[in-house]
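anyone seen this seq b4? input:
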Amino acid sequence: MKKILFLIFILGISLSGYAQNEFNSKFKSIPPKNKNLKIKKIIPPKADLPKTTAPKVVKKQDVPLDVPKINFVNPEGITKKAENLEIVSYKKNQNLGSFKTSSHTAKIRYRDAAYVDGDKIRVYLNDKVIDYEVVLNGDFKGFEIKLEKGVNKIDFEALNEGFLPPNTAEFQVYDDKGNIISASQWNLGIDFKATILLVKE
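predicted toks r here
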């Protein structure tokens, strides 16, 4: 047993001594074979070089001192014309047509044709008010009338133009058999009327 321990001790000392050898101050590095190393520049082939074009020389030009004035068109006149056309389109009474029928009664119904924006109307039958104020919404509202022989005039007067002018509405007229007599729309300014005539034969 003592011999084995002694052998391990000797082996450990010899290994540690060998390991310290490389840190000896007498160590010398191996010099390179060629001391004058030259770095070669790699030049790509001509096909790989980017093509450069010579910059174009712009000749200096004399700017004339008297620059002609540009007369810009004032769009105010064009805008006024457009506004006038718009006003003409709905700032007047509107004729919705005249229709002959043999029906004894007629059902008239109406609703807001565009955005529901609070349009209000007044309804007349033969120049007599039958509904003083109707607020138009997305659902159809209306009434049924007994047609008198001859002309039956129905007027829709715009009381306002809502949030989005003009006063717009879709309306439909049916006879007593459920057949449609007329279907149309109106675009009215305030205090203007849309009129339909139903002529009973």
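The CA atoms of residues 100 and 199 lie 5 Å apart. Residues 94-200 form a domain with the Lipoxygenase-1 fold (CATH 2.60.60). kinda curious what u guys think
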